[in-house]
């Protein structure tokens, strides 16, 4: 058997990849985060599949379920919201599976920041304005940030910053980024990206925290700060330029 870590996408059930849906349909055990993964996706599982909501399980209990399925000869779908390559706690699960001798594979999904960019109708990398995207979060009591990855340090780059798990800390985000980005820098918050209750908040950096509080957004949101969010006057890319020699590889 194999454990498949499947990116379920940012929220809308139809944003799971074709490979993810096919893999899900072939697994007779499915572990999913009930608070984040859309319930509609569970309809893709076989009718007799064992469905396990991991929202109230700890790492040992999750590992025990996968080992049990392995011993019974069942493939396992481990559904993670967004894409499992970022902020999914997949690494610690894979470490446990390595120790238990349980094989696994990863099926990528649509990440939350991509769904947020789609909601904003923005390309995050714009010629001559910004070509770098930083995916990060803020430190809190549960998990500290490694040295050199604090917002004050990352902000010196001036790159577009995308913050996960940070909506309740919007005031701190603004305070730490203002010296580097300026009060008028475009900022946005997208909550529940791609879902029916999707909420988009736009504003200047110096006002975005107040707008987030007013909207009551505390979780399941990404914060974006950077000049590409408001870029209008920029040079066209070389990719489709009429001056480009298309006979040169």
From TrEMBL:
Keywords: Cobalamin biosynthesis, Methyltransferase, S-adenosyl-L-methionine, Transferase. Pfam families: TP_methylase. The keyword Transferase applies. Coiled coil: none annotated. Residues 2-209 form the Tetrapyrrole methylase domain. One of its GO terms (molecular function) is precorrin-4 C11-methyltransferase activity. One of its GO terms (biological process) is methylation. Pathway: Cofactor biosynthesis; adenosylcobalamin biosynthesis. Belongs to the precorrin methyltransferase family. NCBIfam families: cobM_cbiF. This is Precorrin-4 C(11)-methyltransferase. The lineage of its organism: Bacteria, Bacillati, Actinomycetota, Actinomycetes, Kitasatosporales.
